[in-house]
Amino acid sequence: MINTYTSLHNHSEYSSALLGFTDSINKIPEMLRWCYDNGLRGMALSDHEGVSGFPEMEQAIDKMTLERPFTYIFSNEIYLISEQEDELKNSETERPHYWHFLLTCLDEVGLHQMYELSSRAWLRSYMWHGLRRRPTFYSDIEEVIGGNSNHIIASSACLGGFLPKKILSNDKQGALDFISWGNQIFGAGNFFLECQPCEEDNDEQIAVNKALWKLHEYTNTPIIVTTD
């Protein structure tokens, strides 16, 4: 792994503050130091719908003595949902699912796009079942990124993502349609299928990983491994 692996899906203590419950106790300077000391090529900060940790990440990097190339990356794990799904919050019999989805900046334009998307999510946020929900709509991504792609890459996230749930429900066409949308909006090579390691008894993650690899081969969509 020395100087070959970049950790692209990581949560800090900011996620806990953003969610309102304990999600991660990782401190950004310690995360960066661990990744650097253990030979990783870089680290992304991808808190749950929040970009407030980015300044601390830059400050921490400025204080580090780097004797080899090491990249710090701005990411955001958003909650992707359609307007129609979002309306289920008013239903007495159904509920919306706030699907996890990972965005990662490639450059300064991508950073501004990420800020725009996060601002929209927070401006429409609301309390639902005791948590502040901050959904990003597909239409937001299509408006902000669709006409100016190649500045942000995206990946399918954890078991809380839309694509893994389609796999687990045996909805192959739904999975293919979602991959097609990702490739169309983010541009060829900028949408990734995201596998994650797990314990031997995690049947759902194992099934998703196997299916993602088959989808990677079938659709020629690139695949990555993250540790969330």
Tell me what you see in this structure.
The chain has helices spanning 13-19, 28-37, 54-63, 83-86, 108-123, 138-144, 162-168, 172-186, 203-219, and strands at 6-7, 42-45, 71-81, 99-105, 126-128, 131-133, 135-137, 152-155, 191-195, 223-225. The strands form 2 sheets. Strands 1, 2, 3, 4, 7, 8, 9 and 10 form an 8-stranded mixed beta sheet that branches. It starts with 5 loop residues before the first strand and ends with a strand. The longest helix is centred in the C-terminal third of the chain and has 17 residues, at 203-219. The protein contains 9 helices and 10 strands. With 228 residues, it is α/β, with parallel strands linked by helices. It has one domain (6-225): Alpha-Beta Barrel (TIM Barrel), CATH 3.20.20.140.
Helical segment count: 9
What's the Cα radius of gyration? 17 Å
Instruction: Please name the CATH architecture.
Output: Alpha-Beta Barrel
Percent helix, as a range, is 40-55%
- Name of the level-1 CATH class: Alpha Beta
CATH superfamily, by name, is Metal-dependent hydrolases
Q: How confident is the prediction overall: mean pLDDT?
A: 96
Strand content: 15-25%
CA-based shape: globular
**Chain oligomer state:** single chain
The poorly predicted ranges are none
Succession of helices and strands: EHHEHEHEHEEEHEHHEHE
CATH topology description:
TIM Barrel
